Amino acid sequence: MTAQLAPSIELMTKVAIVEDNATLRKYLAEMVGNTPGHRCVCTCASAEEAVVEIPLHKPNVVLMDIHLPGESGIACTARLREKMPDLQVIMLTVYKDIKMIFQALKAGACGYVLKRSDEKEILDAIAEVRSGGAPMTSEIARMVVRSFMEAPKTSDPNDTDQLSSRELEILALVAEGCPNKEIATRLFISNSTVRTHLMHIYEKLHVRCRTEAAAKYLRSKPPSLPSRPDARAN
Question: Which CATH code for domain 145-219?
Answer without folding.
Answer: 1.10.10.10
